[in-house]
Write a structure and sequence with these properties.
Organism: Georhizobium profundi
Keywords: Membrane, Transferase, Transmembrane, Transmembrane helix
Number of helices: 11
CATH topology of the largest domain: Spore Coat Polysaccharide Biosynthesis Protein SpsA, Chain A
Radius of gyration: 25 Å
Protein name: Glycosyltransferase
Helix content: 55-70%
Number of strands: 7
Shape: elongated
Number of domains: 2
Pfam family, one: Glycos_transf_2
Structural class: alpha/beta
Distance between the termini: 19 Å
GO molecular function, one term: transferase activity
């Protein structure tokens, strides 16, 4: 792995209890990597302890993990990116396997799936939420991932520089997964142990607040990437309700020749027109979404992946090392 320029990215908010050991562990297992800690307005000594541990510390003033990830991917240029949380729940010892899997499979993203997270996510309610949201994701966007909320991932340069990163908070991992599924990027998963936070470290994830934001993000991403399915579902709902109001009026009309419930008939016709509008909108926006996906794919293909096949890297290894050393300096 010395032939590659590797950057370890650690978004942090109030993690003074763990950040020193997290930085030290990544420095031990990836000694040639550059380690960046992005401090998201911590009110404790997170930034100072990260700097003392040897990390490059950058402050992101916009609150939210999504803002931090967007800044990290924009700021840092590397061949391979490893992203992990600063709370110590993800073992740094698995980072080399993430990197080697990315290289050997020539993937654009490798996700470290958390063992038993759907049974015990470290907090009451989180395990249930993980099961529900992962199930929803697989139904809406495909079966590429089994743990869409894992914050422990490795990325190619091509992924990092083509990812739009529109989210603001913890829903950023969901957006990453949808980006990979939409463009049909090569991805992989490896299982890793998922630890608990040490004493003095507290979760920043709100069960209902962030769960609602993730659900909203899933709906928004479905609208943007699969508009026919999204608006088709709305059209079907309007059509069913319209028929519910329309059928009794029609039965009465065929039996008596009269329409006594005129307001009900007008409402049914209005709902059917809304169903038609939603259906046509879905058809049109589906063509627009396909065009946007093609443009994103073309942009993705114009970027260098950040790593080459093993034979090419063997020949170019001295030059790659020199390049990496120059960047660190």
């Amino acid at each position: 792995m010395q032939a590659y320029d590797i950057a370890v990215l650690i978004p942090c908010y109030n993690e003074e209890a763990t950040i020193s050991s997290v930085v030290a562990d990544f420095r031990r297992v990836l000694p040639d990597a550059r380690i960046y800690v992005y401090d998201n307005n911590s009110k404790d000594r997170t930034a100072m302890l990260a700097k003392l541990a040897g990390a490059t510390v950058v402050r992101e003033r916009r609150q939210g993990k999504g803002h931090v990830v967007r800044r990290m991917f924009a700021d840092i240029d590397a061949d391979i990116y490893v992203m992990a949380d600063g709370d110590g729940t993800y073992p740094a010892d698995d980072a080399p396997e993430l990197v080697l899997t990315l290289i050997s499979e020539r993937a654009d993203m490798v996700v470290a799936t958390r063992k038993d997270v759907t049974r015990d996510a470290g907090r009451k309610g989180h395990a249930f939420g993980n099961r529900i949201f992962n199930s929803i994701y697989r139904r809406l966007f495909g079966r590429d991932f089994t743990d869409i909320f894992s914050g422990y991932r490795a990325f190619s340069r091509r992924f990092a520089k083509s990812f739009p990163a529109l989210s603001a908070g913890f829903e950023i991992e969901t957006e990453m997964s949808v980006h990979a599924s939409q463009l049909k990027l090569p991805v992989a998963e490896i299982p890793v142990a998922y630890g608990r936070r040490p004493e003095g470290s507290h979760s920043k994830l709100g069960t209902f607040r962030d769960g609602g934001r993730i659900l909203w993000m899933l709906a928004l991403l479905m609208k943007e990437t699969r508009p026919f399915t999204f608006f088709g579902s709305i059209a079907l709902g309007f059509a069913v309700v319209s028929l519910g109001f329309m059928v009794p009026v029609l039965i009465e009309y065929f039996r008596t020749g009269l329409v006594d419930r005129l307001p009900t008939w007008i409402l049914a016709v209005a709902l059917s027109l809304m169903a038609l509008v939603a259906f046509v909108s879905g058809v049109i926006l589906d063509s627009v979404a396909r065009g946007r996906a093609e443009q994103k794919r073309v942009h993705y293909l114009t970027l260098k992946p950040g790593f080459a096949p093993t034979a090419e890297r063997t020949d170019a290894q001295p030059a790659a090392k020199t390049k990496s050393t120059r960047k660190v300096a």
